[in-house]
Amino acid sequence: MDKYSFLNAAHSAYFADLYDQYLQNPDSVEPSWRAFFQGFDFGSERYGLEDAVETEKVMGDEVSCEHVSISVTKEFQVLQLIDGYRNRGHLFTKTNPVRDRRTYQPTLAIENFGLSEADLDTTFSAGNTIGSGAKTLRNIIKHLENIYCHSIGVEYMYIRKPEEIKWFQEKLSINDNLPNFSADEKKHILKKLNEAVSFETFLHTKYVGQKRFSLEGGESLIPALDALIESASEYNVKEFVMGMAHRGRLSTLTNIFGKSAKDIFSEFDGKDYEQEVFDGDVKYHLGWTSDRETKNGNKINLNIAPNPSHLETVGAVVEGIARAKQDDKYADNPSQVLPIVVHGDAAIAGQGLVYEIVQMSQLDGYKTSGTIHIVVNNQIGFTTNYLDARSSTYCTDIAKVTLSPVLHVNADDVEAVVHAMLFALHFRMKFQRDVFIDLLGYRKYGHNEGDEPRFTQPKLYKAIAKHKNPRDLYAEKLIAEGIIDDAYVQKLEEEYKQKLEENLEDSRKEDTTEITPFMQNEWEDFTTAKEEEMMKPVDTTCSVADLEKVTKVISTLPKDKKFIRKIERLIQSRQTMFDEDKLDWAMGEHLAYGTLLLDGNDVRISGQDVERGTFSHRHAVVKVEDSEEEIILHNQLSDTQGKFFIYNSLLSEYGVVGFDYGYAMASPKTLTIWEAQFGDFSNGAQIMLDQYISAAEDKWKIQNGLVMLLPHGYEGQGAEHSSGRMERYLQLCAKDNMFVADCTTPANMFHILRRQVKASYRKPLVIFTPKSLLRNPKVVSTVDEFANGSFQEVIDDPEIKTADVKTLVFVTGKFYYDLQEEREKLERTDVALVRIEQLFPLPTNAIHAILDKYKHAEDIVWAQEEPRNMGAYSHMLMHLDAVKTFRVASRRPYGAPAAGSTVRSKKRHKEVIDFVFDKTKNNQH
Known about the structure:
Its EC number is 1.2.4.2. The protein is of the alpha/beta class. Helices cover 38% and strands 14% of the residues.
């Protein structure tokens, strides 16, 4: 190594600190360093030794330049070795219990740093950088091996915040990154590890071949979670929100969350449920809520969210639940709610949703003060080897997106696992940031217990078959330490298995399974609702005084700030609309939000560009022109109002819909809205729609009031920007699982949003909202319709005399105004246009009443602007027999929702309109 190559290390914290120490007191540093610094100009371009005197008398020692140069060079070589361990030590750890680790080059051999065996017994001041003081190279290497290359590998050097790196290095130096538990603590760890092992063994014996997605190979997760909860209570953490897929879930429910094994056995026995209002789900998908008293007497609320087989969806939901709890109860200290997400190694590496969730973690609208991510790393995904499951070195490399630290730990070393978990907790609580734990273990059986893993991994599973479980390994260690004896372990196992036997016996005395609702405390004021209840009117009226108050506030900008002139006019026009009794769509929204806020409810809206609205109609957040300061007028209504949250989201649908769904799940008294830029942008969140929004109440006995606003309407903007794909949502509708609406008036929008909060139950609500109608002068409502009206599922034609009607047209959404315009142009007084505003539950009684009213009509039409294979037509056919006799006016069936050519789009649109008014122009077949 060239004597000047030490410059690569010149920015190390150690070098800078040492130089500062020299400047303050030259005699306080070693003679070799003092001689070096005398010829070193830290602030100039000169970094050589040329200006050092030929010889220097220092504290009675003759120090030659050559000696100084060699000594300094060696010191820097040791510094580079230390940096090598810090940056790459994790690649050379003992973290894999059943496989040989991959070989990485270059290694940490001292020769790669210009050092040799001759240097091993030389004392180096560089040892100060790791907190050990001046030590021999041999002792420095031993210290580094203990810190960075034992059962825990740490990745943190890519972090860009010096204070975080310094925290890591100090923590690692203090405890050598090695666990140090008392005898009693070790016994408790063994107890929890025994519960994990014995639980799985018991199930394997009693329910042979049944799927349980056992934790075997990763049982150390249980004592680690137990320690996490106990230690978090000392930080005054009040609530945990956890999400995990199948692997180890049953053990976690029983041994951490306190779910009775009796209930789990009932689920294994396949008994029916005690209630008919839901269909249930497999046992390893169900959620749970409980309260736990920790050793220090604190109470912690524990929540494990229900999840489907789409492994990573629950992560987004967990973050939303945590944020809702933080906003509602812990705004002053949000870290009191701690989200934990447990991943599989194949899932965290392969599922794009993880990236979306990680990208949310520091965003104002979605951050949750840091999540602890735990990967139960089986080194295999169903049958796929880890080498085929990712391109990255580690499955946890997604952590580097947010420069989050990662702790890789050997799942067989339970003390190391518990230690790593507590280390992660300390980091999260200190820096309010995400941290990842890669729990490297194995999977004892196949993907499920009925699978044969030797088909695809014969070599690996030969090794696993001979491998002792973590409890037995740990028991041997404690016996060797003299902490326990053989009888102690046997007693632990017998006592726990006896408890399980008693639970099994009790479960078999019962005929049905009772499913405890998730987060029952938050939902105690709400009832469940079947379709009959959903069709009952809800009082959504409000006083004119409240409407006036909201209007005045949201129409008045601060006079001491400068705004874009167009914004000033737009904000002021709100008061003008109110005074002229012509309220547009934006006012329908604003007054719904404002009146709910006055009633004490919170409102949360998120999605891409929702603050001003994709079509610039909302402007709920106004920017000061010269500073971009944000003004939210809705938060200035009163001192006792609810909180108005509105956030432009990252360019994510799947993750953000999952987050907002979780938010609505945890905060049922909040109006929670997700808005798409265009209707079919929700396609990116289809899994959330299929697995949660449409099915969760049936599967998991949980309600949710999330509102989805999907701009929809054919205005010649191409396939993706026309259709919200309403047919997909309508196909998901059944019994009483959700509301779907396609509103046409500001008043109806106002009332349906208020109904969502004023009802005594919660159902998801999908609203197909307009684009062109946002500024259509005909799309207005009166103040009285807001104050004293209600949501109208069907709107009869107010302009036509019943006796004159020959053609009765049923229509939904924006297409009504196109038909109304054509009717005026043709001067047709014999055509009635009836709007279906709520598509599910379909208001069949109201529709039949309309049919009776116009029973003398010669021609009954279902009209839609969508192609026949899309839109609401098939839904109407399924839910209303009379529709089979209707004449259908629609575009022909197409693969794409709309034409890309504006000319072609207008032509097709006109053909449908023409056919509504003249059935002889039948070009639909």
